[in-house]
């Protein structure tokens, strides 16, 4: 379990367990609809959350929940499909309650999924969001993700309005190599 101080609020982060489905569903239903548009499934539906829990149990999803005073305030997931043409690719998903944004929780959750991807030996990660989610784009770019595709009119909200989705990607080995170069440079500078 990890934890973070979110502006005086202790937030605990732990793996999504079978018994957490109702709390995850309540969290999803508390979010603004626009926050959910990049997802391929509607996680405000009980059967979708049940499928999410099954996928975790079967090993195709790794997911953590962030808890504040007994309620879920954030979630992250690393989704992969060993039977696809891209078993070397994982998709990172992060969702946060609006009242915990800006305190570092999103970065902690996203980094946890990047670390998990490294541990699993994944070569590439993707993340999707609507183009107007500037904070989310910035968070992933800070981790080494870069824009790779724009999907025009990809998501349709309940009112029928269409939204563009941006796909960001990170090649894990390249990001590690760059990080190593900067770390080596810092170490060389420290000896000077």
From TrEMBL:
UniProt-listed InterPro entries: Acyl_CoA_acyltransferase (IPR016181), Bact_Acetyltransf (IPR050832), GNAT_dom (IPR000182)
This protein's name: N-acetyltransferase domain-containing protein
Keywords carried by this UniProt record: Acyltransferase, Transferase
Keyword Amino-acid biosynthesis: no
Pfam families found in the cross-reference section: Acetyltransf_1
One Gene Ontology molecular-function label: acyltransferase activity, transferring groups other than amino-acyl groups
Signal peptide bounds: none
């Amino acid at each position: 379990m990890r934890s973070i101080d979110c502006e005086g609020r202790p937030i605990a982060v732990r793996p999504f367990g079978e018994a957490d489905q109702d709390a995850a569903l309540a969290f999803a239903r508390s979010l603004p609809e626009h926050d959910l548009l990049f997802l391929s499934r509607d996680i405000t539906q009980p059967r979708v959350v049940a499928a999410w829990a099954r996928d975790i149990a079967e090993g195709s999803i790794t997911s953590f929940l962030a808890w504040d005073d007994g309620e879920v305030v954030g979630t992250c997931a690393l989704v992969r499909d060993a039977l696809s043409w891209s078993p070397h690719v994982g998709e990172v998903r992060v969702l946060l309650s609006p009242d915990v944004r800006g305190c570092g929780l999103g970065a902690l959750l996203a980094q946890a999924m990047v670390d998990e991807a490294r541990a699993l030996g994944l070569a590439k990660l993707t993340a999707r969001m609507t183009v107007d989610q500037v904070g989310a784009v910035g968070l992933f770019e800070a981790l080494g993700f870069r824009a790779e595709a724009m999907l025009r009119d990809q998501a349709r909200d309940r009112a029928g309005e269409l939204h563009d989705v941006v796909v960001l990607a990170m090649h894990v080995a390249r990001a590690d190599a760059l990080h190593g170069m900067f770390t080596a440079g810092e170490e060389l500078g420290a000896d000077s």
